Each structure stands twice: as C-alpha cells, then as structure tokens.
Amino acid sequence: MSCDEDDEVRRQVLGFGDETLPSFALPPGDLSRLRIVHGSCRKLHGKFNDGLATVGYLIDKARAESTAEDPWSLIRPHLLLLTGDQIYADDVADSVLAMCTDFGDTLLGWPVPGEWLPGVPLPNWPTALPPGTRTDLALDAAGFTGGLKHPELAKSHLMGLGEFLAMYLLAWSPTLWPDELPVSEGGDWWERQWVQQLRQTLPRVRRALANVVTYMILDDHEVTDDWNLSRDWCRRVWGEEEHESTPKPLARRIVTNALLAYALCQAWGNTPDRFTAAGAAGTQILTEVEGSPGAPDRPGWNGQPYRQPVLDRIADLLGVPTGRLPAARRGASVLPKHTSALRYDYSVTWPGRPFELIVTDPRTARMFDPDPQAAPGVLSDDALVAQLPAPAAAPYLTIVVIPGPVLGVPVAERLQRKLTSELNNYYLDDEAWALRPKTYHRLLGRLAHRPRVLMLSGDVHMGFTIKAGLWARQPYGEPAPVATPLRSDIAQLTASSFRHPAGHTFALTATGWRALPLRELFQENLEDAACWPAKLTPEVDWAFHPAGIGNSWQDSFKQEPAWLDVTAGRQRPRVFVPEHWRVRLRYITGWRHSPAVISPVRRPRRVRPPAPSSAGSGTSSASPSPRRNA
User: Fold this and answer.
1) Parallel, antiparallel, or unpaired: how do β-strands 36-42 and 79-82 relate?
2) Which residues make beta-bridge pairs with 81?
3) Residues 201, 172 contacting (CB under 8 angstroms)
4) Contact 377, 367 (CB under 8 A)
5) Could you give the CA distance from residue 301 to residue 109 in angstroms, rounded to a whole number?
6) How many other C-beta atoms are found inside a 10 Å radius of the C-beta of residue 540?
7) If I label 531, which of 5, 200, 240, 597 is the partner at 20 to 30 A Cα–Cα?
8) Which pTM was predicted?
9) Bond before 538 cis per omega within 30 degrees
10) In whole angstroms, what is the distance from residue 314 CA to residue 317 CA?
11) For residue range 98-144, what is the model confidence (pLDDT) as tens digits?
C-alpha cells in the first residue's frame, strides 16, 4: 500500500484512472453481467509472463470502455478466485529463499539465531541452511516426495515460519524486494532471470489485488508437493499404526509453519468471522501466536524449543494430524485431527444474488484405502457431506471451487489407474478424482441436488472445458431413491497456470484439444455412463449380447460402483436392472478463434421399471441414447 502524500504516487500504487484509492464492485444480481477471473499455480521463477498481472489490465480496460449503459461497476471483474498453489513452498529459487530467510527473521523479531527446527542436526535454524542445500533434509529428514523425480526442485524448500510468511509478502507486493537480487553460489542464471521478470509485474499485481474481491483456497504447493497424496506418503511423513514407519518431526514442523502462514495470509481473509468470534479456532490461533499479555502461563510462540507446548496447541487448531494414520487392516481411513480444528472450506452468498459460491478443501480431509499406492479419496465421505451439504432450496446457480479438476478424460484416467499398480504414484501424481470411483460418484451425487453447477479448477497447468449432464434417481451414497429424479447441468472450467506452464499448455491454448496426441480419444461425446451402486451379477443382473461381445464389460460390472458406457452406437450387454444414475461427459472442443459446433447436453429420460424378464430374454434398461429436450 502507499502512505505517500503525493496523489499521483498513490494513484499509481492503488488507483485506476483518476482514483487515488482502491475500489471494487460487488457481484451483480444479473448473472449475464457477472465477471469472474480464476486461476492457480503461480511459481515465482516460473517461465514466461505472470498471468496474475493481467487482472489489473482487465480492470483498467473495463474502466476505459465503460459507458452510461455499461458502467464500470458492471463490466469490471467482480470476483478473483485463486484456486490453489498461490505460492510454491517446495520449488523455490535460491535468490527467493535467501530473501525469505532474511526478511522472515527480521519481521518476526524472534530471538537470535531464529527458529529451531526439530530433526535437523545443529546448527538447525533457517539461516544455517542456505539456499541450494536443503534437498537431503526435505527428502530424508522430512520424508517429502516432491523431489524424488527431480531432486533439484527441493534444494531450497521453505522450512521456517518466517520464510513462509515472507514468501507471501514477496509474491503479492514489491515493497520488500531489494534493488539487487541475492546471489547464491551455484545459483541458476535462468532462474534469476525469471524471478527478475516477475518482479517487474508486482506493482500491477498489488494494485489488482487491492481492487477486486478475492477469495482463495490452498492446494499442495502451499505446503509441499504431493502433500497427503496417498497412504504411502502418510506412512513416510505421519507414520502408520502397526507399521514400522515413524513420524517425522521436521515434516510436522514444516506443515505446521505452512498452515499457520496460510491461515494468516489466506484463510483469515476468506472467513474473518472464524478469526474474530469468541472461541473460534482462528481466534484461538491468534491468541496462541501472540500470547496473552499479563498471563505468564500463556506465552506466545517464539520459535524456541522451550515453548513447544504453545506450538503443539497451534498445530492442533490448524488441523495438523494429532497421530499416526490408522492401520491399513482397518480399511479406508482418515488422518486424525483435533475436533476444534480450523476448517478451510467455506461458502459465500450475496443478498439478492441468484448464486452461491462454495470453496472446498480437498487436502486436509482425505480418505486412504489400504493399498499404500492407491489414489486417495480426495474428500472423505464425511467431508463431502460437510463441505457440500444438500440445500433446502438450491439457488439458480452454484459455483464450486475444487482445486483439482473433477471431470477428466476417462480413457486416460483408467490407463493411469493401471500404471499406478506398476509404477510409483509419485511419478504420476495419481490423485485424480475418478481414480477412486466411490469418491468421484459420491461427489457427483452431492452436486446432483443443485440444478446448475459451475466448477472452477486448476492444478494441472492446462486449460480445458467439460460439460456434464447428470441424472439420478438415487445418487450414490444416499440410502433411498429421491421422490423426483434429479437433473443437473455441470460445466467445469479448468484454468491453465498463472505462471507454471506444462508441456501441452501452449498447444492447448493455441488450438484446443485437437492439438494433443491421440486426439481421437477427445471426441465431443466423450462418454455416457449408466451407473449402479453395487456390483452386477452375470445372468442375474446382466447377460451377454446375443450377437456376441467381448469380456471387457465384465471388469466395469465387477467394480463398486458398477458402470456401463452406453454411448450411442456402441455394442453393450443386456442389463435387467435400471441404472441409479447417469452421467454424460462432453468436451468443448474446436479450433481456437473459429466457431465450434457444440451439441447441447441431452439429459437421460426418467427411468421406468422394465417389464419382468428372464436372464435369457431381457433387454438393456440403459438405452443407447436416452434424450430429453433441453
């Protein structure tokens, strides 16, 4: 911000046009006027331009184009949604870590030499762990996995609380940046150039953030890559009951520091009531951090080992696991946490607006199957109910922020599931929603109670759009059929990264999905699936087609939930039981800058009970192309 007495200086820092102070516009009641900007994955030394800086351009462009009929308040961005990886704590440029360590210690004002890090040989404070030397600590002492594929990525991992706090300040404002970047021995020249380029955009980033309503949610890189990825990851870091693994004290400290910095720099702004209400978790966290003046038995946290009980209380309130992961023999399980822990998911409504915003937290409430390498349930069953409750009266539109895309490419995801059993899942980032079908379909069941859903996601560093038509007479996970079948239209908009492009990012941006290899897999009508909550029994629930068909269908019928691809024109077996729900996925494809012909989503007609039939003469209740006029 700026306290300069010169209006021109203040205008350049905060205002647009003749405005000397920041401004913002609340979302309008007319959905056709609503303007949302969303994105994720902003690495300070990522390649190429900083996408977050374009938000200021959009605000200023709207001001210049405003008219009496289209005032600035209606055509400027109304919401900026940052959907994860606002900072990269695990992949840090050497020059940036040097600044974070220096500024963090100064800002906290803790006793010299600074925070003591457990599980690290003396000297064990951040200033004694210079940039470029932390790979072994991150991978071995902490048990993290983000550097297993490329060890150099973990060489400057953030560890101290001051480092995490300073990273947020450096990412969003130019105020603390020195005239010259620090130089570290053996530092990467290109890395410094990309950092220097981002620095030039920070005045625009700061001004943009001051002029638009902004909400955020964390993903893994705010803490460390692969955070809570799988049961095996939890074994390495948190330990598991009845297993030889042991908890890593350094990992616990790093995660605690990361979550405390997130709570102060992101969550506090999302849900200020959780940090002001008496007895709320956020309020208690602030009290524990600062201490209680005049109460010697309630000192604040100062990074020293003799005040470890203070940090333990903070960790409990932040939701850091209170113990090991339950043993695999107990089945699917979740990490234990304190009952009063701060929740990071939230929802927002505006009076008189026909929509709601729900922001989910898919990192701290996961479910892990007994197989140590299996993909996680990105949200546990209880977390799905808590974060996506069935509404008493659904609004016209529900906007749901889910950091990782829910709807993907089924063919690719099934291949990934197969490869995971053969390879280490740290090489595949094996955490797509559909890789654990029970969680995927349970989420769709929660969304089915809302007639129109806009899902906003990021994480995968490439942008794409999928539409889904969802019909359900008994959503998965619900004990009984609903009185009237549910229908929901879902659109998922997945954003490319703010500043961390992936291999296919540019091809997708330039020409769309047809630029990809094996593009025949990405047809407009991607998949139309009929689904059942339990396995289907051959010759009882289904039978082979009289004309003959391969055995590939049997695998999908043996799964729970069971499913069948009923896309028009494909052979299928005869099924004798009506499906419980149906989901149809379609990509928005087409060449960039040319009109795309997109067929409307046709939702399945209401299922009618089939006439009684024997296994030998039955017909499929999953018709090839059930349609209802949209």
Assistant:
1) parallel
2) 38, 215
3) no
4) yes
5) 11
6) 10
7) 597
8) 0.90
9) no
10) 5
11) 999 999 988 999 988 999 999 999 999 999 999 999 999 999 999 99
